[in-house]
Amino acid sequence: MSLIKWTPFFPEFEDMDKNFESMLPSVRGNQFGFTPAVDMYEDKDNVVVETQLGGIDPDKVDISIENNILTLKGESEKKSEVEEKNYYRKEIRRGSFYRSIPLPTKVDGDKASAVSEGGLLKISIPKAAEVKPRTIKIQTKK
């Protein structure tokens, strides 16, 4: 007997549900990953993003900023030991993760810094200098 996925919505929405599932970046094939939670705030000079990545080697985390979008990618590896365990609960998430976060203001990504301490990754991104509007005077020819 095979399992049938329960869909509580109307059959018309099944295609939409499939499309939504295909867009999730944290699901790749049968390997389910996770999306790390973030705290984002700003001070006078920086946008700061904090996320908990306990148990993940900071060297295996990729951080990039492009077009004012911060992207975090990495993988939490499980040691592959041959053990038979009789789990009652298995809630610790392992696998790859991906998170793309639009930043609330223009930033200077080239000057960003990241520090990992006690499982907390803190990324500080300096705000870009505000672009002042340029006034153009119209010249008239006679």
Question: What brief labels describe this structure?
Answer:
142 residues; mainly beta; Immunoglobulin-like; four-stranded antiparallel beta sheet; 9 strands; 35% strand
- Range of strand content: 35-45%
Q: Summarize the helix and strand pattern as letters.
A: HEEEEEEEEE
Unreliable stretches (pLDDT < 50, length at least 5) are: 25-32
What is the CA-based Rg, rounded? 22 Å
Q: Mean pLDDT, nearest integer?
A: 78
Terminal CA distance reads: 89 Å
Structural class based on helices, strands and sheet pairing: mainly beta
- Overall CATH architecture of the domain at 30-79 and 92-126: Sandwich
Write the layout of secondary structure elements.
Elements: H1 14-23, E1 27-28, E2 31-32, E3 38-42, E4 46-52, E5 61-66, E6 69-76, E7 95-102, E8 113-117, E9 120-126
Tell me about this structure.
- Mean pLDDT is about 80; it is low at about 25-30.
- Strands 3-4-9-8 form a 4-stranded antiparallel sheet, with no helix packed on it.
- It has one helix spanning about 15-25; strands at about 25-30, 30, 40, 45-50, 60-65, 70-75, 95-100, 115, 120-125.
- By secondary structure, it is mainly beta.
- The chain has a domain at about 30-80 and about 90-125: Immunoglobulin-like (Sandwich).
- The chain is elongated, with a radius of gyration of 22 Å.
Concise overview:
The protein has a domain at 30-79 and 92-126: Immunoglobulin-like (Sandwich), CATH 2.60.40. The protein contains one helix and nine strands.
